[in-house]
Specification:
Layout: H1 16-29, H2 39-44, H3 49-58, H4 62-76, H5 81-88, H6 121-132, H7 137-147, E1 150-163, E2 176-183, E3 195-206, E4 224-233, H8 238-242, E5 258-259, H9 266-271, E6 274-276, E7 286-290, E8 299-306, H10 325-328, E9 334-342, E10 347-360
Antiparallel strand pairs: 1-10, 2-5, 2-9, 3-8, 3-10, 4-6, 4-7, 4-9
Helix pairs in contact: 1-3, 4-7, 5-6, 6-7
């Protein structure tokens, strides 16, 4: 059988150079499960762009197409318009440059965003037009969705101290505070599908610097932490119809800033056209990260949740896993970050925080 010739018909201008690559891939992967871009795949995909695109137009092998999508997406990520036209061998005459100025780099060293260079929707649209000159529209759209994401980001650099004693008496059961520290703008409500890919929380904070029952320098006996909530416009409100209200809750001076527990803020949010998105267990918050116990110096904490990926955690006491958060997040929503403290005399001393939401259409 090995000595017999295999006759493969070509079509759409595909020649033997493409078919040889197909046979090479099939022989190497016939007994393996290739679902990721591993070292062999990466070396295999080192081919000229013309061959790669011809193969994509012709082949109907799902795994090889997946490999092609990932390869091209990696090729075009971070490329300028000029670099894309050169790489794809396409004229950019039909592309109209964006009139909006390029976003300026961050002017702070305090909790810099984890991905400082975020592509704009215009960048993604330009790449889509260029790819469609070489590929069927449906393939070009898949590649652009993998290479380009949209972002909603929020930052606050303002020191606030949240005392667990602010509500109730000296009572272990009732000493609790939920501080409304940061809110993102509303995720744009635009036509088409929506998928939240990831969210990154960063906090700089400390507690009161001492503890009665031990745990110093660890997450044991930590009673200060951060939680996140999803807020969604109430149906029929002006917000639900218009969307994209930049940080309006964060700048609403009439909104209280602290409650004993986050769910007690619901009435105030409802009055302003928002409501909580609930977890399966009926709660309205997801634990993000705890502060180290009895550490008065500010520490930086970072937590990232990715859709479909189980969060690797130092410990359950250190950070939350975010189960179901991204799956519930929709266009039109906003994310709120709460500073929490409980137990008499405990304080959450917050210096800064950021939230970065990555999504695709």
């Amino acid at each position: 059988m090995a000595d017999q010739a295999i006759i493969l018909q070509t079509s759409n201008g595909v020649d033997d150079r493409v078919l040889r690559k197909v046979v090479e891939w099939c022989e190497a992967t016939q007994n393996t499960d290739h679902g990721t871009l591993d070292d062999w795949d990466a070396e295999f995909m080192q081919m000229d762009v013309d061959t790669l695109f011809d193969a994509a137009n012709y082949l109907e092998i799902e795994q090889l197409l997946e490999l092609g999508y990932s390869t091209v997406a990696k090729m075009i990520q971070g490329k300028s318009l000029e670099e894309l036209t050169t790489l794809l061998k396409v004229s950019h005459d039909a592309i109209t440059p964006a009139s909006d100025p390029e976003p300026e780099p961050e002017a702070t060293d305090l909790l810099p965003y984890t991905r400082p260079l975020k592509p704009t929707e215009q960048d993604a649209f330009n790449a889509l037009l260029l790819l469609q000159a070489r590929l069927p529209p449906e393939l070009a759209l898949i590649i652009v969705n993998r290479a380009y994401s949209s972002w909603v980001v929020a930052r606050r650099e303002e020191r606030r101290v949240y005392h667990a004693d602010d509500f109730g008496q000296y009572d272990l059961r009732n000493n609790s505070i939920a501080g409304f520290y940061l809110a993102t703008r509303q995720i744009p409500m635009e036509p088409g599908s929506f998928c939240a890919r990831s969210i990154v929380f960063q906090t700089r904070a400390a507690d009161q610097g001492w503890a009665t029952w031990g745990g110093e320098g660890t997450f044991h006996n930590s009673h200060t932490w951060f939680e996140a909530s999803i807020l969604r416009p109430l149906r029929g409100t002006q917000r639900a119809r218009q969307g994209n209200h930049e940080g309006e809750l964060g700048h609403d001076e009439s909104l209280p800033r602290t409650w004993q527990y986050p769910d007690l803020a619901r009435e105030a949010f409802n009055d302003r056209g928002w409501d909580f998105v609930y977890k399966e267990n009926g709660k309205v918050t997801w634990r993000v990260a705890n502060n180290l116990t009895a550490c008065s110096d500010d520490r930086d904490y970072r937590v990232e949740w990715r859709r479909g990926v189980e969060t690797v955690r130092e410990s359950k006491k250190a950070q939350g896993g975010g189960k179901g958060f991204l799956e519930r997040l929709q266009a039109g929503d906003m994310v709120v970050l709460w500073a929490r403290a409980e137990t008499p005399a405990w304080q959450n001393r917050v210096a800064a925080a950021t939230v970065e939401i990555e999504y695709v259409r």
